[in-house]
What we know:
This protein has helices at residues 9-32, 94-97, 125-138; strands spanning 35-37, 53-57, 60-70, 78-86, 91-92, 102-111, 114-124, 145-149, 152-160, 169-174. It contains 3 helices and 10 strands. It is globular. A hairpin with a 2-residue loop joins strand 8 and strand 9. Strands 1-2-3-6-7-10 form a 6-stranded mixed beta sheet. Strands 5-4-9-8 form a 4-stranded antiparallel beta sheet. By secondary structure, the protein is of the alpha+beta class.
Amino acid sequence: MGIRGMSNPLIDKDFAFEKEMNQYMKAYYDLLGCSYDWNDKKNNFIGDKKKDVTLYHDGKKILIEHKFRRFDRVEYFDILVETVQDVESSNVGWIYECGADKLFYIICKTIKGIMRPIYLHSIKFKLFKDWFLEWEKTGKYHKPIMSLGGYGETRNIPVPLDIIPKEMIRKKIPIKGEDED
């Protein structure tokens, strides 16, 4: 089911992709020795507006937001920040509603015929959000990228990785699965 209980094939496809990628992330968290809570007991890997998963590691509780980006032909050197989820309804993007401690911006690629997460950028979300909102006001960003999907027309601002302050990002952390060394 899509938003507000209405079925939408595009939203359903996105949720199926996220669920599949979250299974890889679950295996990754298992390898790191983390425990986790996805807020659902059916292993649908459903989060809420504030975060996708709560990780517990070394006695710490960390709220994590996952954002997945696919690439096969082109490697992106930016992250897309959703500022408007649906232009028609003016629903705000995740940058305004997310309450996570960390944003894991996860890059997915097809390997041996299977799409899977290969690395992530770990971003201290609250610092990043404050920085992004100030940076966006300067107008020194690339043209917004508008995308059509299940929620409608979405507005994303591309943020080059090399301008994000180093103290708030760890780049290209490899994601290894249980079948890799």
